[in-house]
Write a structure and sequence with these properties.
Distance between the termini: 80 Å
Radius of gyration: 25 Å
Largest sheet: 6 strands, mixed
Shape: globular
Number of strands: 17
Length: about 270
């Protein structure tokens, strides 16, 4: 009986040692992460962005804040295509007025992925240089079809917005993004304030698995491709439309669509979306 009990204890000890050894090896070898893309640097400065350090009144004149304005990773220039400040619905310089009502300006970021691993960890990091002290915004972040909302804390005041140095330490939003939200092909991030006033950017970046390969756009960017959830009649027969959301960039790109190796569509892309 004692021999059996001793053998049982020895086996149990081996299992416990194996468990902790396996756990430690796993903890020491996490999946490698990298910065997939970034807009600006985490340097407590907005100098890399458009209109900085004090041109917020030109926000509408530069066509920022609308759905058709975007920053495309690998194509756009932050000094020209990303504003240093994002207004809230209570800022007249963002398009709100007593007659027109409140307007929520939006910042659009597009990025494409050529290669993506089956799983992995993603994180969107939004560094803010300063925030309105009087009316800190209710900030909304949307990645593809999933969104998060954050009530931001009070910042230091209007001096940073107007180009002066600030002693405000900044504020960082870190969003863990589930792997199933990020997809191969076109991805979109929307930043907007549902209520409140302005914020000033320091940096925006996304981190992800080492195996992700970000695409470099050329003359056009495919935002999305999907089959419609309805049918139409084509030459007397039912057909399901293929919806291609494409953004023109430059030159005269030719868009060609194939299904099972058969060309079903071809057209030169015109300016716009």
């Amino acid at each position: 009986m004692q021999k059996r009990f001793s053998l049982f204890l020895t086996t149990l000890c081996c299992i416990i040692v194996l468990f902790f050894t396996t756990k430690n090896v796993s903890a020491q070898n996490p999946q490698s992460q990298k910065t997939l893309w970034q807009i600006g640097n985490a340097d407590h400065s907005d100098a890399e962005f458009a209109m900085a350090p004090a041109g917020y009144k030109d926000f509408l004149g530069k066509d920022f804040g609308w759905e058709n304005k975007f920053y495309l990773v690998g194509f756009s220039d932050p000094k020209k295509d990303w504003p240093y400040a994002l207004p809230g619905p209570q800022d007249a310089w963002g398009g709100s007025s007593g007659g027109a009502g409140y307007r929520a300006a939006v910042g659009n970021i597009l990025f494409g992925i050529n290669k993506i691993p089956a799983d992995g960890k993603y994180e969107l990091i939004i560094g803010l240089l300063d925030i309105s002290a009087e009316k800190p915004p209710l900030f909304k972040v949307t990645i593809n079809d999933t969104s998060w909302e954050y009530q931001l804390p009070k910042g230091s005041g209007d001096s940073t917005l107007k180009g002066q140095k600030t002693k405000y330490p900044g504020y960082v939003i870190k969003i863990p993004v589930p792997a199933n939200i990020i997809k191969k092909g076109g991805n979109e991030i929307k930043l907007t304030s549902l209520w409140g006033s302005w914020l000033v950017f320091d940096q925006i970046k996304m981190e992800g698995p080492e195996g992700v390969q970000i695409s470099k756009p050329e003359d056009a960017f495919i935002r999305n491709v999907k089959s419609a959830n309805y049918e139409i009649e084509n030459s007397g027969k039912p057909a399901q439309p293929l919806l291609i959301d494409v953004q023109y960039l430059s030159a005269e790109p030719l868009l060609t669509a194939f299904v099972d190796g058969h060309k079903i569509f071809e057209k030169k892309i015109e300016k716009g979306r």
